[in-house]
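ok here's the first one, seq then struct tokens
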Amino acid sequence: MTAELVRGQNHPLSGTRLEIRVSAGQPVVAGATLGDADGRVPGAEWVAHPASPRLPGLEVSRQAAAEHRLAVDLDALPEAAHRVNVLLALPAGTGTPPRFGAMAAPFLAVTGVDGAEVASYTITDLDAESAVVALELYRRQGAWKVRAVGQGYADGLAAMLHDQGLPGAAQMAAGIEEAVAQGMARAVSVPPAQRSAGESAARRAAPADARPAADPAAAQVPGPGDSVAAASQPSAGAGPISYRHPGRRTSTPPDPAPVAAPAEPGQPPRPVAGDATGWTMDERLYNQVWGMFEDLARTTASYRSTVDFAESRLEQELDRVLSDPATRVGPAADAVRQEARARQAQLVDQARAALDRDLTQLAAEAEVVEHALPPAFARWDSPAWQGYQVPLERPMALRLGDVHLPERRDLRIPMLVRLPLERGLWVDAGRSQGGPEAGLLDSSEVRRLAMDCAVAHAVRLLAVHPVGDYSVHVIDPAGTAGAALAPLLEYGALREPPAAGARGVTEVLARLTRRVDLVQMAVRSGALDSLPADLDTSEQLLIVNDFPHGFDDRAVTQLRYLADEGPAVGVHLLMVADREDARAYGPVLDPLWRSLLRITPVPDDHLADPWVGHAWTYEPPSVPVGSDVVRQVLWQVGQARKAYGI
């Protein structure tokens, strides 16, 4: 169970390879310092920050963002390093509030390599501080521990680094702030082996042992002394680009994957569905979809980085013209300005041409792949559902919708999550969505769409699991979701009617909490055979509508327990709620919201990846107007359940 720390509290670390996740709600700069036995930072080479993100055993984010993931390998740290301080600072000029007291309390979680949380800490009671030492990992008698620090500094990053004994703290702080302001962390470096998106797609089909070994030195990360131009220039018009993420690893399939038909001379390879590596076709398609997502992220980041560089260079050239009175006015000055603007336009046009070329190839690949996806990965309008049969094996992943970027809105990548779900889902029933449709809907319509979205996800989960391997429970305290839940009741997908009222809420939560407790104890003691005969050991999905209506403090505590401990033993949460309705609870429910993956019933650009920091627009899965595909699938599921006596 996760240890929720308070300021000054420590907790032992059982593993040495860790990930520290930061959630701040607003863009922050995340960094880390290594300290000696006295807690002092000897020099700049002991500081990891966006302009120099890697140290032995430590890697931090390259940019200011609302979400961060810091990687730590305690065994790889220098022998002289006895502690790691995790730092957060507010960047200037990004629209972020100037003090932590004006934003939501930052949250940090320390997890193992398997994603299991070891300890978490919410930094409360901050006010005028603009920099804070959040956590400290320290070595004591050969063992490592984590301590919640929460020490803030009103004078900012420079004061914090100076307090840790770093020589030249002010210069270091200025360098970090300049790197963030110039967008250095957004620059995506290009590996030496350059390929177009089409060649990248073809490369995914090659066996792993046929590819050149990855060279960590090939990914040239900008250092403190590098310029934005040096980091960004190669991405503009320098030829095809490789969009392969250096961390992607796939296994060699036991049999050859499909091979693309030969392309015409001078044209990229024709896309083929399932040409990524994997042991099964589903695994190949899953890897191919994620490869397309990474390709789209990198090609868009390259384009944006080039545009930023072109605009920055134009501003510098115009500033030089204006700074010299002799060249400020006159025909010569006008000519210099025209030339500068022409160079900027040429660079942007070259970048756009490269982007359009790669997006066209990715769109062709997406079209081919979409028609080959199995039901668990497919849209509701896919022909895969017309030939649907109840499966005999569990799928490896599930489609939650689509994601896309504004550079090409019709290029949609399936949003796949691995099964079993590692975290619950929260369908946002509030009107905070930022998509174009949000302003056209009233609150009751958004709530109706949110419940329809939740039911569609529940139907898909039931449909892609073998008969009896998945059960659904519903809590609807006020009984407002009767119309949306009617198909589940009509076709026997629910074993019992939705729980209503305070009593119904209590009974369902108590039953599922008991199941989690019993299975946890049986797993820990290795005595699964001793579970009660009446205990349903299938995967459980709990749909909660209109939270927190009908929930008292005890019920809220049980729900938090199910969200934290349930996924590990097969109990999953799907909440339909408006976060504004829970404001009366204050920060008590913040850990609950953070533990869930937020999805929306209308398009919204709330998803951000920590890799390059794009804001992805999420598109919920939509059922075609007038289609009965959901009812048809539910009918088949219900018939199969009846045949098995469920």
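and now the second one, same deal
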Amino acid sequence: MTNLDTKKISLDNLGIKDATVRYQLTSDELHDITIEKGQGKETSFGAIAVNTGEFTGRSPMDRFIVKDDITKDEVWWGNINIPFDSEKFDKLYDKVTDYLSNKEVFVRDSYACAEEDYKLNIRVVNEYPWSNMFAYNMFLRPTEEELKTFSPEWTVINAPGFMADPEVDGTRQHNFAILNFGKKIALIGGTGYTGEIKKGIFSALNFILPVFKNTLPMHCSANVGKDDDTAIFFGLSGTGKTTLSTDPNRSLIGDDEHGWTADNTIFNFEGGCYAKVIDLSQEKEPEIYGAIKRGAILENIVMDDKGNVDFADTSITENTRVSYPIYHIDNIQTPSIGKNPKNIFFLTADAFGVLPPISKLTPGQAAYHFISGYTAKVAGTEAGITEPQPSFSACFGAPFMPLHPTRYAEMLSKKMKETGVNVWLVNTGWFAGPYGVGERMKLKYTRAMINAALNGELGSTPEDFRIHSVFGLAQPRTCPGVPDDLLSQRKAWDNDEEYYKTAHKLADSFRNNFKKFEDYANDEILAGGPPAAEK
């Protein structure tokens, strides 16, 4: 029940009674209200700065999925997808809606998925104005005409000030993010971290699209070239996903979440970007730096009395972030849709310094490395880490994948075969030795390798590649713009014994990590791992 002229809306159907509803406010209005309420401050960029409170990142152990007839036989239950009782959900939901009743709340109608046939209409109900501004930035924005007939399919209810009672409510602690597929509700409480809003809908789509729409959801960035060829970039934090997909010669489709349809269209889920800003500089990442202006939200940064931001200050968190609508970036694809996927890049920051700078993958290898989702943590990033540590996150986004990782991997393999897309493993990490000995691969060389792959300049016959003896990966012998001696890690180490000792150590880590997937993976995927696995 909406009236766009007076911007009034009733939430009685959600159980939120007698609330003062601020419906579909503009970004500017929400910016000003946040400052008026003392919940944020304006920076010298013009962007607003907020502090998300106790939680400055997601809380994976407090993310639940209601176990019901829809989910019980489909979801991969475990420590990533933790089941929640349906009756407990209903009681907790009633407590949250009662908490929001008689309060001022901020409501936004928006949608996810840029491709018309896949649109998911979302109503977001927020306790705080800046959380609603985040929803404006991150979800797609309907027109006034579309709002007249808007009917929400999913509802996000976000109450950071509500604290659960674990003993009564069935949560682990006072914060929670719960998906209920039967009722199409994402219920979030006890945490002000805005990423829970975005990732709640992303997780829902990671179930809905493969189960009901025969569409592969992907935690990736994507761009499109002047010849309408689409490239997809997978990678965990610190691998260069945002930097490498933001290319002055290609239009950005999106930087984090996409779908790949049965007819080979790539579409963005989102209407904005949510980027890390730790050590951000205009020189290193000009596009993100330039997007920080009025309409953007900076989270958990430190600034002086004049509003000058110190991006190097991690005293609140290392997970400092900015949210902005995608139109803050100049070179974007409108609408956020691409056709003709030609190249996929798996980005990894290998701190062991043994994976090739770039290698071409077979469908089986692509599925294996997709399920593995490898990168590495380096010394000093976490307490107790004194040497490189392998880090694996299935499908490059395990915390958001409700189905078993092999379900997504088999869909990717099928897509590869149908389209003939090339898949490349790109090591943006260390070269000529591990972290502390070698050096980080220069960005200009990584860009040159990616450009060569995009331009079809890395070879077309088996003779153009050599096979890595430990990982079985096809390494190009030459690459335009890159010295030949930068294409071989073994030669660069100049110590075969140490190189192979370290390479075998990493290969063993891959195999050990993959043991939990072996019973679900087909023979082609199993054969995609390091050949030494064959006894």
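notes on #2: The longest strand covers residues 104-112. The longest helix spans residues 496-514.
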